[in-house]
Amino acid sequence: MASPTSEGLLDFTYQGERLQTYYKVFGDLYKGTHHPLVVLHGGPGLIHDYLTNISALNTHYGIPIIFYDQTGNGRSTHLKDKPPSFWTIDLFIDELVNLLKYFSVDDNFSICGHSWGGILALEFELRRRPQGLKHLVLADSLASSALWNKSNMELMQKFPQDVQLGLRGGMKQPGPFFEALLKFHAVHGCTIQPPPEAYMKTLNQVFGEDGDPTVASAP
Question: What is the CA radius of gyration of the chain?
Fold first, then answer.
C-alpha cells in the first residue's frame, strides 16, 4: 500500500467551539485528470483505518483519496462530556463541508460512504444539494433503519443464545455486545480469520481499554 501524501489536523468550528478533524490524503488533489474521492467511515463511532485499502485507487488509477476521522472519533477531537443532543447528522455534515472547503475541492469531488458513512453521504446530498458532487458510492449502507434492524434480527436467530443476548444488549452492555458482534461479523461481516489488524484497531477505538464509546452510544 502506498504511503499517504499528507496527513494532519484541520480546524473545524461548530457552535462556536474550535474542534479539529484528522485527515489523510493519498495522491495529489490538484494535478492530474481525476477529481478526489472522499471516504466516509462507518459507525457512528469508528475510524477510517479499516477502509485504507481504498487508497489502491490512487496507486493503480491516480485517483486522489481523502480519508478522515469524524468528530469524536480516532485522532479527531473527542467530546466525551457533550449531551446526546449534540450528536446530530448536521454536525457531521458541517464537518464534511468544512473538509471540502479546506482542500478547495467542494466544486469537484466524489464520495464513498461505508455503512453509517453511506447514511451520512445520503443526508449530505438530500439536505445540502452539493453542486460539486459528481459521484456517490454507497458501500454496505442502508436506506431504512427499520428494515436493517429487521434483517439483523432474522440473521441473529441462527446464532447461539449468548450471541443473541449480547447483540440485543447493544451499547448498554458494551462488553457482551462486542463479543457477540465479533461472532456475528465473522459470518456476516469481516469473514477473514484472524481479522485484519486495521479492522480490530477500528473496533477497539470503541470497545478497547482506551476506546471512546461516546459517539457509538449516542442516540
Answer: 18
Q: For residue 115, give Cα distances in angstroms to 31, 63, 139, 192.
A: 30, 22, 6, 19
Compute the mean pLDDT over every residue in the chain, rounded to the nearest whole number: 95
Number of domains in the chain: 1
Answer yes or no: is 101 within a domain: yes
Q: Give the per-residue pLDDT at 46.
A: 96
Whether residue 168 lies inside any domain: the answer is no
Are residues 187 and 180 in contact, defined by beta-carbon separation less than 8 angstroms?
no
Residue 39 is part of a domain; what is its CATH number? Answer: 3.40.50.1820
**pLDDT digit string (tens) for 124-147?**
999 999 999 999 999 999 989 999
Element (H, E) at 39: strand 37-40
Candidates 113, 115, 76, 80; CA nearest to 98 is 76
Between strands 37-40 and 17-26, the pairing is unpaired
Query: Where do runs of H (alpha helix) occur along 10-115?
Result: 56-61, 89-102
Q: Is 119:125 a contact under the CB 8 Å cutoff? A: no
> What is the number of other CB atoms lying within 10 angstroms of the CB of residue 214?
20
Give the residue numbers spanning the domain of 134: 6-143
Residue percentage of the chain with pLDDT more than 90? 95
N-term to C-term CA, the chain:
36
149 domain residue, yes or no: no
Instruction: With respect to residue 106, please indicate whether it lies within any of the assigned structural domains.
Output: yes
Residue 219 banded pLDDT, cuts 50, 70, 90: confident
